[in-house]
Amino acid sequence: MEQKALIIGEETVRKYLSAEDVIDICEKTWRWYGEGNVVMPNKITTDMSGLGVDGWFNSMPAYIAPLDAAGLKLVGGYNGNRALGLPFIKANVILTDPRTGVLQALVSGDYINDMRTGAQPAIMTRLLAASTDVVCFIGTGLMAYYSLLCMSKTVDIREVRLCDVSEEAKDRFIARFPDAPFRFVKCATNEEGCRGADVIITVTNANADLVEEPWVKEGGLVMTMGSFRETSFDVVRKADKIATDQVGQSLHRGNVKELAEMGEIDENSFDIVIPDVLAGKAVARTNPKHRIYAQIIGTGMLDVACAGLLLQKIKESGEQFFRFDMTK
Asked: Which of 66, 161, 222, 265 shows the smallest number of beta carbons within 10 Å?
């Protein structure tokens, strides 16, 4: 049996996977997961700092039956990268034949990680927001850019408010959207950005109360994407509905982690689970006046699905790629 594998770099990934492709496959994968057609064990974190390596990485395996794609996402944070001109977060995806274990492809996962991160709030906003006229971003880095890029393809936005400790970061963010159909407003404070916003999204590394409950309007949607606490606990406590993309992992991250440790939230506290909504097993927003809090986790199955779709598109293209012989 032939044992040849593709090595797929960033340029090729970008060539074959558009934002629309990633949004579509992420939504399908969530639906397939809700239908029971995805196997996805919990991720494993390897923290190397105790042995003198200033970094960590997550191992995130999945099998997506409708794509017949099996693989593993490896993504980590490496504190020495910036000094080397590399991003803090680096990702790769490994695809194997689900029946033999033979390596099919090693895929550079940075673009996939970034774009699928942006696809998540784009899909969730469409499902959960009562209105999307005014969107407030707290944090204006790369993940916020991909989030707005994808959201612009799923919902109509009139105004984007930007909150960040760095004015330069806000300016760089705006410069990425030279032909934006919405207007940008740079806000001096988080409160200024949040009050009256239809959608509030936090995309930071902070561990602080960036959003206070009184700032959230009736019918507002608050989505947090960071690993640590990004809002006051009352944003969660006083929400009419709590949503997530994956219950088990939500209990161990962000705002929900601390509330779970205090015994205030458990697996039964989530009113809306996105894969169940897309599978037709549950409903999303039921009342335009409800305030909804959503914690976005991000799971490895999305990256494996993106890589699986990429491999399909490359094969269908007929373009010739070097295949590494794994027997030599």
From this structure: 66
